[in-house]
Design brief:
By secondary structure, the protein is mainly alpha-helical. The protein has 5 helices and 2 strands, in the order αβαααβα. It has a two-stranded antiparallel ribbon with strand order 1-2.
Length: 116
């Protein structure tokens, strides 16, 4: 059940990021969105911890702000991995803002719906 909540939270984050950030677009079906959310979950589970560990000195030097760049890189990786499923970005700025929106939405919704 917890996995389904996390997937729904990520889907809501992507949806709001597409609606709020001008450079992010999504033109696909709900089935494609499910695949995108699953890829995002895999990237966040396997790639993101390694990226955070490798960037730890820069994260410490910037007092944690570099995590925003890591989040944007993970979103860009999801966009690249999903290819033609409909999620596209105009550039790093749009991806960066989209990652911030997704992070905020994820934080708020997880605080509301998490069982812990």
């Amino acid at each position: 059940m917890r996995l389904l909540v996390r997937l729904a939270v990520n889907a809501a984050g992507i949806y709001l990021a597409v609606r709020l950030v001008d450079g992010l677009t999504y033109e696909g079906s709900w089935q494609a969105m499910v695949i995108i959310v699953l890829v995002m979950a895999a990237v966040n589970a396997f790639v993101r911890p390694i990226a955070k560990l490798l960037s730890l000195p820069v994260v410490i030097l910037t007092l944690g702000l570099f995590i925003l760049v890591v989040n944007a890189a993970m979103l860009q990786a999801v966009i690249w991995l999903t290819g033609d499923l409909g999620l596209e970005t105009d550039g790093f700025g749009s991806t960066f803002l989209g990652a911030i929106v997704i992070s905020i939405v994820s934080w708020v919704l997880t605080a509301i719906f998490d069982d812990d």
